[in-house]
Amino acid sequence: MKYIIITITTLFTLNFFAQNKGIIYNKAIHFHLQEKNDTIDFIVVDTLLDKKKPIFLFCQGSLPHPLFFEIKNKVFMYGGGISNFDIDTIKEHYHLIVISKPNTPIYADKKHLDNNYCYIPNPSNKNEYSEEYLKNDYVENYVNRANKVLKYLLKQKWVDKSKIVIAGHSQGSIVATSLAYKNKKITHLGIFGYNPNGRIEEKIRQERKFAEKGIKSWEDANKEMDYWINLWKKLNNPEFMFENPELIAWKSFSKPTINKLIAIKIPIYLAYGTEDIRTDLCDLIPLKFIEKGKNNLTLVRKIGMEHNFFEVDKNGKIDYDKAHWKETMNEFVKWTLEN
Q: Distance between CA 311 and CA 328 in Å, rounded?
């Protein structure tokens, strides 16, 4: 593996501490790992590496969000969602790491972003993601890339190798679970907004909820359920997947990971909002652990909150003025220090 310097002199102020890192916008240090068939960019959210600390790797959710992007003519560090956290609290105890999405630049200006701040390679087509990203957006690839980053980090003098914390939200919780299952050097796992049975199962449950609440008729819900079942049939057809490689994420992230989660021996922290349909089945996970005689699961239900830990009122409306990501993540950080 080869490590090279990235320079973005027109967009960021860079200072160099060594030949393999540079400071991006006075927020984070950018690393660039170049292999024959892949380029892996990741950041350490700090400007100095003068203190030896353990690793805290955050696995971001779905969609090709750049780690930095332009909002109202200013550069914003989104970092796969860490902008919602109390970053200083995490940095007090850990080196906070985020890996860029495959085939997604670490920075994008506003003309290369859609309305959801996802990277769009062709500004004239705001509805089309990178073909390379779509082909590489699958669990196994994320796990492989994360393991390469961890392997590199564990060789650095500024890394305390005694503890490796992995956290993931939404799609990232699937990646984090799969990573902890495979990499035995990981010591703590935190998953947020986790669905143990995958995407398509979630879509089918959602249709049932819509019908039960009267949002749509049972006839319409039935049609949608059949659509998702038929899609799963197609995704499990090798010929169909060969002709439609851009759908690999749907197949990969629809596979259940509950058996992997149960097999993990390290301390596991699971937090989710009770108003999040993706996480309905998390209520049953403790039963699985009890059945196996395991006591390494800490489960936290965030009452009245949705997928991103905003409060939901009695009418089901999200209150974006009542956010709870910071306290949710800080509770997990405290847990990692006590377990």
A: 13
Q: How is the chain split into domains, by residue range?
A: 2-196+256-338, 201-250
Which letter does DSSP use for residue 67 in this model? S
CATH of the structural domain 2-196+256-338, one choice from 1.10.760.10, 3.60.20.10, 3.40.50.1820, 3.40.50.300: 3.40.50.1820
pTM over 0.85: yes
User: What's the pLDDT tens digit per position in 34-58?
Assistant: 877 778 999 999 999 999 999 999 9
Relative orientation angle of helices 139-153 and 171-182, to the nearest 10 degrees: 60
38's tokens: 């892949």
* Chain centroid offset of residue 154 CA: 21
User: Which strand (E) or helix (H) includes residue 58?
Assistant: strand 53-59
DSSP for 142-154, please give it: HHHHHHHHHHHHT
Residue burial 16-35, b: 16+ Cβ < 10 Å; e: rest: eeeebbbbbbebbbbbbbee
Share above pLDDT 70 across residues of the chain, in percent, rounded to a whole number: 94
- Find the angle CA(151)-CA(154)-CA(157) to the nearest 5 degrees: 145
What does the DSSP 8-state code read for residue 119? B
Q: At what angle do helices 199-212 and 218-235 cross, to 10 degrees?
A: 170
Taking a C-beta distance cutoff of 8 angstroms, is the pair 117, 65 a contact? yes
Confidence tier at 234 by pLDDT (50, 70, 90): very high
